[in-house]
Amino acid sequence: MIVPELGRQDNVALPDLASRICECRRCPRLVRHREAAARHPPRRFAGEPYWARPLPGFGDAEARVLLVGLAPAAHGGNRTGRMFTGDRSGDWLFRALHQAGFASQPTSRSRDDGLRLHGAYITAAIRCAPPANRPTPAEMARCQPFLLEELARLGRVRVVVALGKIGWDAYLRARRAAGLAVPRPLPRFGHGARATMPGGPVLLGSFHPSQQNTFTGRLTRPMLRAVFRQARRLAGP
């Protein structure tokens, strides 16, 4: 069941941009996939309303730390209407953010659950859930202007945390598209990777808190917690 109205998102910054993102239908394949997920949910979510629209970023408009993820989960953010909300990736992420002092609570179940971000803003390379979590290059390009606008408006960011290689690459591409300098050679993604942008923020890499990484032990809670503690130190008071 698709939610027909925009609804309320706690802690949404940049409301005019958020409205434009939510109305986007530029990628037919992604539109079909996000709406099909709402029409045919797994049994555990049967009867629940689905957002089934693109997701804007959310968080603190004065953020010093920016998180760049991949895309909403088909039955996570695509269902709840907020990034990393209502899925197991979010369980890991918000617990780590809470422990580092960036989130008001360690869990996030719905966009009306009272969660607030302090000094942090969460966005993604793609705003719709892609089939098999694999957006095409053309879909990435069509979504990039939203990220560019966020980067231009979030003027206090000192640290960017890339959640996965797609987030890492998307941030570097966005910098180049905006005419901002990037290191040469381009820094390579890895968990714990660190690169300082010329005249800009520090870029930190983290494995994405997907079940593929957390179930296999490739990413552990101490590993994720360490990334955000480092982000806290680099961002300053």
Can you walk me through this structure?
Helix content is 36%, strand content 11%. The protein contains eight helices and six strands, in the order H-H-E-E-H-H-E-H-E-H-E-E-H-H. Strands 1-3-2-4-6-5 form a six-stranded mixed β-sheet, with helices on both faces. The protein has helices at 15-22, 28-39, 77-80, 88-99, 137-153, 165-177, 211-214, 221-235, and strands spanning 58-59, 65-69, 120-124, 159-163, 194-196, 202-206. The chain has a single domain (15-235), classed as Uracil-DNA glycosylase-like domain (Uracil-DNA Glycosylase, subunit E, 3-Layer(aba) Sandwich), CATH 3.40.470. Helix 5 crosses helix 6 (165-177). The protein is an alpha/beta fold and 237 residues long.
Molecular shape: globular
The CATH homologous superfamily name equals: Uracil-DNA glycosylase-like domain
If strands are numbered along the chain, what order do they take across the biggest sheet?
A: 1-3-2-4-6-5
What is the CATH first-level class name? Alpha Beta
Low-confidence stretches: 1-13
Average of per-residue pLDDT values? 93
Would you tell me which CATH topology applies?
A: Uracil-DNA Glycosylase, subunit E
Indicate how many domains the architecture comprises: 1
The run of helices and strands is HHEEHHEHEHEEHH
What portion of the residues fall into strands of 2 or more residues? 5-15%
> What distance separates the N and C termini?
43 Å
For the record, the CATH architecture stands as: 3-Layer(aba) Sandwich
Structural class: alpha/beta
Rg for CA atoms: 16 Å
Largest sheet: 6 strands, mixed
Number of strands: 6
Helix content: 25-40%
Counting DSSP H or I runs of 4 or more residues, the number of helices is 8
